[in-house]
Amino acid sequence: MPSVTSADVARAAGVSRTTVSYVLNDTPGVSVSQATRQHVRDTAARLGYAPSAAARTLRRGRSDLVVCVLPDWPTGPVVDLLLDHLTDVLAERGLFVLVHHHRDSRALTDLWRAVTPRAVVGLAPFTPDEARAMAQAGIVVVGTVQTTDDDAFDRSQHDLAALQVDHLAARGHRRVAVAATDDPRLARFAQARLAGVRDACAARSLPAPVSAPVPVDRPATDVVRDWHETGVTAVAAYNDEVALAVLAGAREAGLDVPADLAVIGVDDSPAARVSAPPLTTVAQPILAQSDHLAAGVLAAIDGTAAPSWPADPAVVVVRGSA
């Protein structure tokens, strides 16, 4: 079925295409009565007319599109919240967010041939070829702490895990295990968090933590039972999904949480609040990070100084599991 054009709107409204263009583009300095303006808008809405993004870009000399490139990560509540908030903030400036889940099978240069964004937000580093292609196309690139400062990124993940140990140690736990993720796409996050647990245990003169990968699609019964038998009393899980698998494993192993085994996750996901028992977790400052990305996009567009990375700390949300 052919798409509705501005000519179709003009014909149905009984006005010229020029009038339709003036009205739908809010062209300043033209004399069109309010009644005619409303009639044209109503007709366009009734016909389902959508203006061409390409034509709008050509006419304005700029795009109103911001592309957010996600790495090959599993998505979840943290990424969802970041993107939702980023979309809301940029919408206030008339900008639209397009999310592109980057896969190695298709180069980003193919995307730039299809759309010409005003800016690109990268949640992971771009390759030199990708960065060069965007620069040649005049595309503004806005990065996160992961894309702009490797040390800062690793420290942020390290410190999340250190908070877990601090909380567990403050409640008297001496033997801590790490429930790691088995997803290879999250290896860099997992390594930094494991290092954070190890360093925090060493700083408190606790035994070195034991660690094992925990799939999120089944109870971690055998792993939890083995840990408990070796004297482990607390588990620092990679994230809330992994922590829920640990909770399910503890139930199947006949262990009481937190009396026999305390469990703490990361992310403060919705499921953490309704698990049995409710999950203690570390909440990341996602809204502050999303605000930072939005501010970075607007600063790049406006030609102003880029904001510094937010200093809002992560916090432990205490619930029944620890």
Uncertain parts: 57-61
CATH class of the largest domain: Alpha Beta
Overall residue-averaged pLDDT value: 85
Using the 3D structure, state the CATH architecture of the largest domain: 3-Layer(aba) Sandwich
- Tally of separate domains: 3
Order of helices and strands: HHHHEHEHEHEHHEHEHEHEHEHE
Counting DSSP H or I runs of 4 or more residues, the number of helices is 14
The biggest sheet, with number of strands, parallel, antiparallel or mixed sense and barrel status, is: 6 strands, mixed
Shape: elongated
Structural class: alpha/beta
Helix content: 40-55%
Query: What distance lies between the first and last C-alpha atoms, to the nearest angstrom?
Result: 58 Å
Strand residues, percent? 5-15%
In CATH, the topology of the largest domain is named Rossmann fold
The CATH superfamily name of the largest domain is: Response regulator
Radius of gyration: 26 Å
The counted number of beta strands is 10
Which sequence of strands runs across the widest sheet? Answer: 6-5-7-8-9-10
GO molecular function: DNA-binding transcription factor activity; transcription cis-regulatory region binding
Keywords: DNA-binding, Transcription, Transcription regulation
Pfam families: LacI (PF00356), Peripla_BP_3 (PF13377)
Protein name: LacI family transcriptional regulator
Question: Helices, strands, pairings?
Answer:
Layout lengths: L5 H8 L3 H8 L9 H14 L5 H8 L4 E6 L6 H15 L4 E6 L6 H7 L4 E4 L5 H9 L3 E4 L1 H4 L1 H21 L5 E5 L6 H17 L6 E4 L7 H9 L4 E4 L2 H13 L9 E5 L3 H5 L5 E4 L2 H17 L12 E3 L5
Parallel strand pairs: 1-2, 1-3, 3-4, 5-6, 5-7, 7-8, 8-9
Antiparallel strand pairs: 9-10
